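Q: Could you predict the 3D structure of DDE Tnp4 domain-containing protein?
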Amino acid sequence: MPRTMIPGHGDWKRIEHGFRTKWIFPDCVGVMDGKHINILAPDDTSDYYNYKGTHSIILLALVDDDYCFSYVNVGTNGRASDGAACSLHNWLRKTSGMYITQRCIDFEDIQQRVVVPGSWRAQLQRTLEGLPPTRYSNHASRLPKAIRDTYAQLFETTEAVPWQCHMI
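A: Sure. Here are the predicted structure tokens for DDE Tnp4 domain-containing protein:
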């Protein structure tokens, strides 16, 4: 049986403090990413058949400010939508109500049909006001613009890159 270990209240505070001080990104408790991992098709089910036309499982990971994994989930079937695969936030709210402070999120008042902004918005404004002004040019140099245009053209076409089928 899989064992689930989630960070405790002190861990969430440490992670948030790290993002706030090291990255100037307050109220962040992790960075999440997911990846479809191709598998051989099971004989008895189509649950693993995904929108890309292959069979896969989903790897989902959450890392802290030091690039250390704080949560990993492997095995959600590939048919699951992004919303279903990334429902970690809702699951944590149900199983560990103290993983995040109320100021970190906006509150949804269902009866009044309004969203009450969290106090994090005022804190973010104060944080941004405290940053020193910088001077920079809004004009991109030729090389980054050429690279961006090349990638844009590549991603907007249906062609594949040579190494694409060899990577997981």
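Q: Anything worth pointing out?
A: The first helix runs from residue 9 to 22.
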